[in-house]
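Q: Sequence in, structure out?
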Amino acid sequence: MFSRLQKFIHLGKESCFFWGARQTGKSTLLKELFSHAPYYDLLLSEVFERLSRQPQLLREDLLLRPSLKTPVVIDEIQLIPKLLNEIHWLTVNHGFQFIMCGSSPRKLKRKKGNLLGGRALRYELLPLVAQEIPDFDLVRALNHGLLPRHYLAKNSYPLLQAYVGEYLKEEIAAEAAGRSIPAFGDFLQAAAFSNGEIVNYSNIARECGVSSPTVKEYFQILVDTLVGRYVPSYRKRPKRRVLHAPKFYYFDLGLVNFLLKRGEIQAGGESFGKAFEHYIYQEIFAYSHYSGKNFPIYYWHTTSQLEVDFILGEHEVALEAKSSKNVGAQHLGGLKAFSEEYKTRHNIVVSLDPRPRLASGIHILPWQEFLEKLWAGKII
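A: Exactly. Output:
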């Protein structure tokens, strides 16, 4: 139903790691693109038991197929890090190609897994973007989030409840090296209140009853397990004093809705504006990754409260996301100030405006037109 943009077109004969948070659709995509490949699903108990006890069985299986032309898919590779030694040997000595799929590179690093000495490429599957969805519905996306099952569901609440309860609060909390799961649950909600905001570790620590270093560790766990990302401050050669702390975004806005108990999000409300900004960030990040451009994304905020939501590349694009249907002068102050300090290629406000227009040298684009230009490579 969804035409995913991640196609492995640059893979060639190289092996790769294929990461992505739970339920982004990694296994579905791999089975679609590599339907004839040998497939080892480590979530299957019999496969897991066999290879965890005797990792060399992978080598023995594949040496019977010396002329194999397709990649070998290992799904949930983080469950058996020892397999990576066998994969490394098969790659170097027999030229086998592997796609190693998983939800947490942190687990491999923590267990000192063999990361193939830099020989493997890295891909990541993200939540859905508008380009992948027929008849895309913005309001549905802002309410349900963009994990495939959640977006399609008539009622996404039970799915989000299970996702947060069984995955985030248990599996991800297990990465906190024995720290309190209830405290981690409190942190998840506090991080949701900080979603899209400048992170204040001390305030969150007080709310959760833990130390600031513990809060920093919790945030790093979310980043390492692909559940969230920092957006750093843009502060290269500043003329104005700027804030240095990063912003933080969960990887999917549906989680934020659930953790904050937002209820139904409707146009015109504060929740809609915050969700809209988060959604535009997800689209920008996905384009940066899927296009292979991998340009950095920053925010800009001065101590005098001038702000730009997103700076793309090395100040090539300055962009504000506003859920207004009629962007006015009051929305343009941050972009004007930034363009006085840095030379930009595009200054853009993405909005709900019905038609594109130009105001004070700033392009005001309906969100649909912005996305068309973004994915056509006309923004950056």
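The chain has two domains: 16-124, 130-375.
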